[in-house]
Amino acid sequence: MFRLVDSEMLDFPESVAGTNLFDVDANLRALLARRSPDMLAKHGERLSDFGAWVGGALDEQATYTDRYAPPQLETHGTDSRPLGRVVLNPLYQQAHAEAYERGVIGLAFTGRAPHLLSFTMGYLLSQTDISIHCPVTMTGAVAYVLDRLAPSAVRDVYLPELIRMDGKALSGGTWATEHHGGSDVGATTTEARPDGDAWRLNGLKWFTSNAGSGIAVATARPTGAPSGSKGLGLYLIPDRLPNGKSNAHWVRRLKDKLGTRGLATGEIELNGTWALEIAPPPHGLKAMMEALEYSRIHNAVAACGAHRRAFLETMCWATHRQAFGGPIADFPMVRDLALDTLADLEAGMALAFEAAATFDQALDDDEARPWLRLTTALAKYLTAEYVNQATTRAVETVGGNGYTEEWPTARLLRDALVLSVWEGPANIQALELLRMVAGKVPGNQLFVARIRETLGRLPPELDGAAQTLRRTLEDCENTFAHLRQAPAEGPLHARRLLDTMARLLSACLLIDEAATDMDRRKALIAARYVNNRLAGRQSVVAYDPLQDRFPAAVMYQPIPA
Predict the structure, then answer these.
(1) CA atoms of 490 and 374, how far apart (whole Å)
(2) What is the β-pairing status of strands 322-323 and 326-327?
C-alpha cells in the first residue's frame, strides 16, 4: 500500500472549534499585508481578538441556534391582532449585538478604518456563522446607502443607529424581492403614497432576510410613476416610528429554508407602512444596486470564509483519522482533494479581496468604479461556485460523520448553497458582466490590460502555464470582439464568458501574489490552479510537485527551489 511518512509534520488540531481563526490563517495575513500595508499594524490585535471570538463563542452559538433554537414567529398579540414579531434565542441576539460592538460595521463608517476591515471580519464570521454574517452584510449595505445617497435629514437621524459600537446598534435589511419578480426588481408592485414629508408603502416583500431588522430600505413605485425600473424609488423603513410606536408592517411567515436556519427570513406585509424617501424615481433602483454591490462583496468574502472552514475541517479530520494503518492524510487521493480545495480557496480569496480593496479605492476615485463592478461580478460568481464544491469535498472526506448534523460540515454544506442565490445568482452576474465588456463601459479593455500585465512577469515555476494563460486571454478577446459585433448573442455566451474571465483573473492574481512576495509555494499553487481550472484535462500520470511537498503547502510554509 502506498504510504507517505511526513504526516507528523501536519500541525492541525483534532477540531476546528476553539481555534483562533485569524491567527492560524497565514494566507489572510499575507493578503492583507499586500492589499493594505498598515492594516495589521493598526488592526491586527483587533482581528486576532475577533478570530478568537469567532472560533470560540460564536461557533458554539451557531451550532446551538442551528440545531436547537432557530428563530420563531409570534404571529398574534394578546389582543388577537396580527403581531408578526420575530423571536430570537438570547445567544443569537447576544452574538449579533457583539459583532457590531466589535466594530464590524462601525469602524468603517467612523473614518477609523477602510471597508476592507469590515470585509475581512465578514470573511472570519462566515467561517462559523453565515446566519450572523448575513444581517451584518445588510446592515453595512443600508449604512452605505444612507451615508452616500440619503438626504442629510434622513442620514443624520438613522445612520448613527446602525454604526454605533456600544452593543445597542440597530441592524439593517434590504427589501427588494417580490413573489412575481425575483431578480426582476423592475417588476416591483409595492406602492408608495405621499403622506406629508413622509410616504406610506403598501405591498408584500417575499424574501426578506434579517426579518426583524431595526431599519430597512425597500424599493417601491410612487403612485402614478411609470412601470419598469425607471419608476422605482428607494425608501427607508424604521421598525419604530419617531414617536416610539411600532411601524405598520408585519412578518406574516418565516421561510422554512434548507440552510441558514439561524437567520430569520420572512414574508413582510407593508400596510400603510411609514417610510422616508432616500432616492426618488428614476434613481431608486440605482440606489438599491449600490447596496447590492456592497452586499455582493460581502457575499464573496463569505464564500471564501466558508470555503476556508471546509478546508480546515478536511485537514483536521484527515490528520487525526486513523484508517488502514495510519492517518488518512498520508494517502495521495486525500491529499489531492485537499490540494484542489486549497488552490481554489486561494484563487477565490485573491479575487474576492481584489474587489474588496477596490471598493475602498472607488470611494475616492470614480475611475476605479468600472473595475470595481467588473471584479465584484466575477468574484461573487466564482467564490460561490467554489465554496459549494469545497463543502461537498469536506463532507466526502469526513464521510458518514460529515453527513450528520452532529458535525459542522453538514451545516457548512447547507449554508454554502445560499451564497449562489443571495445578491443575484450567476445569470444576473453574467448580465452585469455584459454591461461591462460589451456596452459603453470599457471593462474589456481594463481586463485585457490587467491580464497582460501579469503575463509580462511570470515566475519560472509558471513557464509551463504561459501558453494556457495566453490562449485563454485570446479566447476572451475574440469573444469581446464578437459580442460588440453581435450584441444580440450576449445572453447566449455571457455565463461561459463570466466563468472564463473569473478563472483567468483569479489565476493572474495568484501569480501576482507569487511574484510580489517571491513565493515559490504560491507559484506552485497558482500552477496547480491553472492546470485544474484553465488547461482542461491533464494527463492522469502528470507529475505534481505539491504532492511531494504537501505539509509545506497546507501549512503555508516556504518551499525552496
Answers:
(1) 16
(2) antiparallel
Residue 545 in grid coordinates = 510537485
How many other C-beta atoms lie within 10 A of the C-beta of residue 240?
13
Residues for the chain: how many in total?
561
State mean pLDDT over 442-467. Answer: 92
Number of H helices, E strands in the chain: 19, 11
pLDDT digit string (tens) for 382-396?
A: 999 999 999 999 999
CA 32 to chain CA mean position, Å: 17
Q: What percent of the chain has pLDDT over 90?
A: 88
Own/partner pairs for 222-227, CB < 8 Å, 24+ apart?
Answer: 222/191, 222/192, 222/193, 222/194, 222/280, 222/281, 223/191, 223/192, 223/193, 223/194, 225/281, 226/281
498 touches 491 (CB < 8 A) = no
**Residue 169, pLDDT score:** 97
Q: Say if residues 279 and 100 touch (Cβ distance below 8 Å).
A: no
SS3 17: coil
d(CA 253, CA 267): 6
Q: At how many degrees (to 10) do helices 284-320 and 130-149 cross?
A: 150
Three-state DSSP at 385 gives helix
Return phi, psi of residue 95, to 5°.
-65, -40
Residues 6+ apart with CB under 8 A from 305: 122, 123, 124, 125, 126, 127, 133
Note if the pTM is more than 0.85: yes
Residue 256 falls in which region: left (phi positive, over 0), alpha (psi -120 to 50) or beta: beta
pLDDT at 410: 97
Q: Annotate 2-25 with b (16+ C-beta within 10 A) or e (fewer).
A: eebeebeebebeeebeebbbbebb
Q: Identify the sign of the CA torsion 361, 172, 383, 523.
A: positive
- Which residues have a Cβ under 8 Å from the Cβ of 393 and sit 6 or more positions away? 310, 314, 337, 340, 341
For the chain, which domains are there? 172-281 (2.40.110.20), 426-539 (1.20.120)
**DSSP per position, 395-426:** HHHHTTGGGSTTSHHHHHHHHHGGGGTTTS-H
Whole-number pLDDT of residue 1: 39
Assess whether pLDDT exceeds 60 at residue 4. no
pLDDT at position 541: 62
Q: Is the pLDDT of residue 83 over 70?
A: yes
Binning pLDDT at 50, 70 and 90, where does residue 6 land?
low
Please report how many Cα atoms fall inside a 13 Å half-sphere around the Cα of residue 438, on the Cβ side: 25
| Residues 6 or more apart whose Cβ sits within 8 Å of residue 185 | 176, 177, 219, 229, 232, 285, 288
